[in-house]
Amino acid sequence: MTDDRFFRRSGPFSLAEIAIHVGGELCAEAPSAFLVHGIAPLDSAETGEISVFSDSKWSAHFAISRASVIVTNSRLGDCEHNGSWLLLVKDPSLAFAQIGHLFYPPPCDNTGIHPRADIADTASIGEGSQIGPGATIGPDARLGRRCHVEANGVIGEGVVIGDDCRIGAGTTISHALIGARVRIGANNSIGGEGFGFVAGPKGLMRVAQLGRVIIENDVRIGGNCAIDRGAVCDTVIGMGTVIDNLVQIAHNVHIGRHCVIAGQCGIAGSSSLGDHVMVGGQVGINDHVHIGARARIAAKSGVIHDVAEGAIIGGYPAMPIRQWHRQTVAALGKPAPRKRD
Amino acid sequence: MTDDRFFRRSGPFSLAEIAIHVGGELCAEAPSAFLVHGIAPLDSAETGEISVFSDSKWSAHFAISRASVIVTNSRLGDCEHNGSWLLLVKDPSLAFAQIGHLFYPPPCDNTGIHPRADIADTASIGEGSQIGPGATIGPDARLGRRCHVEANGVIGEGVVIGDDCRIGAGTTISHALIGARVRIGANNSIGGEGFGFVAGPKGLMRVAQLGRVIIENDVRIGGNCAIDRGAVCDTVIGMGTVIDNLVQIAHNVHIGRHCVIAGQCGIAGSSSLGDHVMVGGQVGINDHVHIGARARIAAKSGVIHDVAEGAIIGGYPAMPIRQWHRQTVAALGKPAPRKRD
Amino acid sequence: MTDDRFFRRSGPFSLAEIAIHVGGELCAEAPSAFLVHGIAPLDSAETGEISVFSDSKWSAHFAISRASVIVTNSRLGDCEHNGSWLLLVKDPSLAFAQIGHLFYPPPCDNTGIHPRADIADTASIGEGSQIGPGATIGPDARLGRRCHVEANGVIGEGVVIGDDCRIGAGTTISHALIGARVRIGANNSIGGEGFGFVAGPKGLMRVAQLGRVIIENDVRIGGNCAIDRGAVCDTVIGMGTVIDNLVQIAHNVHIGRHCVIAGQCGIAGSSSLGDHVMVGGQVGINDHVHIGARARIAAKSGVIHDVAEGAIIGGYPAMPIRQWHRQTVAALGKPAPRKRD
């Protein structure tokens, strides 16, 4: 069960309500009026709780789980289990995520502006928003409705933020236009000067960085990331893209829609990613490189050339994943896998 | 000599006091009442200062050092030197660290709550604590005695922190239970949402992150790290573990006791480390991997499989360190080292 | 054209003024009194704007650009173009950077101390400085003239900062002496405790970190970096060096003058870089390593040994760049490039 100090649980919900919520089918013996009080992992769930069995590697836990009800699919549901009632769905992971949001709806934040927030006279803040202590909203900034800027967040002059956004504690945003339903974690630096220099007579000379950061709807950014504004063009993060912690996104980078960028990746200046690209942790992408749509890049790879649509690559320099796997298997001194292509 | 603007020196201490403090033996000619005023490196120490000689690679500095007294061991003490008195101990580095704390005890912070700190009515703060300007302590948070939350630190609702902890400027902590004597540097994001998504009908759907971060006693965390809370279980950092700067620790990671995690490492979701594991800088550890106790991982390695207890590994994919060294030596085009196993 | 919400444009300037500003030569047909209103990239520039053509790879854009005037050199100026007037200079990139600063001079910040800043009684702040809301200036800190500490910046006790510096939002600085014209981005942690431990009887024992961070004139640091103070010596960043985002610089590191350190690099304790060293993104440099002046290190390399002056290296372990290219080309399964040395 979750810790009540940190999470406000909703419910209880009857089995029938939950089944309708996820579009699933309860096993015949499940009493549809039974009340479920919370969610828990298979191995620690107790009576009154609901859990999920989404992968056969957890079958040992499934076999002895004390959860009252377990979300799974018809194939996995045939595995041996401990008398829990089954709720059959097509995609157990998706259904369990939906049940998570049912039990833990977004907290009703204390709307209003904290007396120790600093709001410029010319800033506008939509109704239902919450501005935390120490937060700063610059001149002419415009925030949508139901936004939450946490403690010590810094929203710079002219920044526009859509409805239902959350800006984490200590995050600073400047020179940026941000869509709706964007969630940004803590201590990010968004809109900073790009790393642009030319050789001048007295050493390096800074190039004025005159672009913006554009973050589209439904983007999610973790914590401690640095996203620089464009040099003359804009830096763009496409709709629905999710970015983990400690990621570096340089000036002029264009990231497509629904991409997944794992922790500690770095994308150098002016590179672009198509839609639905997946990038593993600690990957580095060179400057001025294009990654085609739906490409997938293994963790810790270094990408120095353009990548074709749908390609799956790994290594440094990045190569087709099978080629890389053969090399790494050879390096480990194990027999090479049989070639299937 | 240290810069008095930044460090408050205690002392002076007599040679006899220092020898007792570290359990060492002074050379016969050293006057036990001689007063030592400070510590310094071998090559810049002056009369009245104490230095350390812990490795024969510094023997040239030892030979000409002007330090009044030098901490070393009996073997190294036989090297040529410049008439400094010797203080012989078993472990010179440990003894010098102890002498450092003797001369530089923890500063007596100005206890009390700054008028511009923001403390929730329902928060409790132990006696002798210091809360800096702009710091925020959320509802129902509980801080122990003699804690210091530096400027603009953000302690979220319900967070528990033990005695004698230090939380650096700009660090934000939520959904966390923290032990005693924990030192956390600046601009960390602790307790943020893990990077958990499922494919939904309209793109990626966030999975509610309902676990906590548990940080045990005597943990030390540097600056600008991101440590996410668990998804349903907890993220755990074991007793006495030390973590450098810019480290990423994903949801559900369990780190054992007395581990050493160097800068810019990334540990992906649900992986676990046994006790006394040492991880070099910029290492990446895959998700759902287990690293056995006392394993050591070379810098910049990529760990994709479980690692046995006590194993020493390197490379990407990580392999036994000798095998990796043979490969890297071959890559450098030098003759392979003789096999000794 | 740049977004007026974020950038305050100066001008317009006549072609003659601009030509004098960069020491260039206008083509004969250009009317020297023509007024230029702003700068833009080749492919989006309009009438009244100036653009740059600095590399033949953009010749297709040059050929159809609608910019009124384009900065280029005499060789590139011979390429086909769309009737734009040409302004010929020796180094188009440098000239365009100079024109950028002409149109976008440093903003006239609102000087003065925000009522919600926290300035210690014993701190001194030079005239013309701006201290943002929530910023904290500690006891005995000394700031030069025309400095800007942005919102929630934290300047610790005794820190000295020269004239014309800018400290980004949420950046914390302690135990540091900083020169003039230093620009530091947001959410950096500068002067934190180095990662120094010795094995003690009850686990790891922290070594007191008693040095400082010295940042010389004209240094530029991005966002979310961690720069630790020295252990007994100092950590030093030499004059004119530029550092990107998310960089880790450990205790006792000495970086020379005019170095370029790209994003996500990590430099371990006590290593040193000569002048004019260039380090690519995500590079790791071992502790106690010396990198000779003018050396260049390819992105993602791991440097474990000393590097000679002027060497160009890559890979992990880093090797001469040609040797590394041969290996990577071989790994990719393409024919090796002809040996030219």
Architecture overview:
Three copies of one chain form a homotrimer. Helices cover 11% and strands 28% of the residues of chain A. Chain A has 341 residues and is mostly beta strands. Chain A has two domains: 13-103, 3-Layer(aba) Sandwich (Udp-n-acetylmuramoylalanyl-d-glutamate--2,6- Diaminopimelate Ligase, Chain: A, domain 1), CATH 3.40.1390; 171-325, 3 Solenoid (UDP N-Acetylglucosamine Acyltransferase, domain 1), CATH 2.160.10.10. The first copy, chain A, has a twelve-stranded mixed sheet, covered by helices on one side. A ten-stranded parallel sheet of chain A has the order 9-12-15-18-21-26-29-32-35-38, with no helix packed on it. Chain A is flat, with a radius of gyration of 24 Å. The mean pLDDT of chain A is 94. Chains in contact: A-B, A-C, B-C. Chains A and C meet through β22 and β23 of A and α3 and α4 of C.
Q: What is the CATH class of the largest domain in chain A? A: Mainly Beta
The oligomerization state is: homotrimer
CATH level-4 homologous superfamily of the largest domain in chain A: Hexapeptide repeat proteins
What level of helicity do the residues of chain A show? 10-25%
Q: Strand order, biggest sheet of chain A?
A: 8-11-14-17-20-25-28-31-34-37-39-40
Number of domains of chain A: 2
The whole-angstrom Rg of chain A is: 24 Å
Q: Counting H and I runs of at least 4 residues, what is the number of helices of chain A?
A: 4
Q: Give the largest interface.
A: A-C, 56 and 59 residues
Structural class of chain A: mainly beta
Question: Sheet with the most strands of chain A?
Answer: 12 strands, mixed
